[in-house]
Amino acid sequence: MFIDDLRLEYIDAIYEIETMSFSLPWSKDSLIKELDNKNAHYFIALLDGKVVGYIGLWEIIDEGHITNIAIHPNFRGHGFGKILLTSAVDYCKNKNFYGITLEVRVSNTIAINLYESLGFVNCGIRKKFYTDNNEDGIIMWKYFR
Ligand SMILES: CC(C)(COP(=O)(O)OP(=O)(O)OC[C@H]1O[C@@H](n2cnc3c(N)ncnc32)[C@H](O)[C@@H]1OP(=O)(O)O)[C@@H](O)C(=O)NCCC(=O)NCCS
């Protein structure tokens, strides 16, 4: 697997994975705007030149906020999600950030397992955070200092 930065040529594949993975997917326009967002950083997982997954984060002062992470359904369970999350964590650690955070649906056991496996902890609940079904979001943090 090869990890690259976000490029325009990857947007169609990312959008396809996004729509296969989320009930509230980002629009293609929002993804394209990320190319010019100086505070956004993406890691794109490529297998034989094809996008199989991605993780995005926003740098907010000295915090990393994960915006999205998804692996193509055909490639889940092979460790790619963990490699991408580790890349984002290491990136934030190297920038001497205070920590890295994200929100996850309370029902998303697989993602919660992934985050906990890398040391993220439950720090609170955003009530009815997800507008499609009013599901609560767990706020998770991994602190570096
Ligand atoms: C969550 C997601 C990114 C994980 O990516 P992945 O490549 O399938 O995960 P990995 O193979 O790297 O596994 C990493 C960890 O996730 C957990 N995990 C993965 N598959 C699992 C499963 N079927 N059941 C339970 N836990 C699982 C395990 O903790 C695993 O660590 P381990 O192998 O050391 O036990 C992927 O399932 C996905 O794209 N889901 C849809 C989008 C999504 O929900 N994103 C998160 C939004 S907050």
TrEMBL record:
EC number: 2.3.1.266
Subcellular location: Cytoplasm
Stored Gene3D superfamilies: 3.40.630.30
Reactions that this protein is recorded to catalyse: N-terminal L-alanyl-[ribosomal protein bS18] + acetyl-CoA = N-terminal N(alpha)-acetyl-L-alanyl-[ribosomal protein bS18] + CoA + H(+)
GO molecular function, one term: protein-N-terminal-alanine acetyltransferase activity
Keywords: Acyltransferase, Cytoplasm, Transferase
InterPro entries the UniProt entry points to: AcTrfase_RimI/Ard1, Acyl_CoA_acyltransferase, GNAT_dom, YpeA/RimI_acetyltransf
Claim: Cytoplasm is one of the keywords in the record: yes
Annotated signal peptide: none
GO cellular component: cytoplasm
Domain of life: Bacteria
NCBIfam families to which the protein is assigned, alphabetical: rimI
UniProt protein name: [Ribosomal protein bS18]-alanine N-acetyltransferase
Native organism: Clostridium bornimense
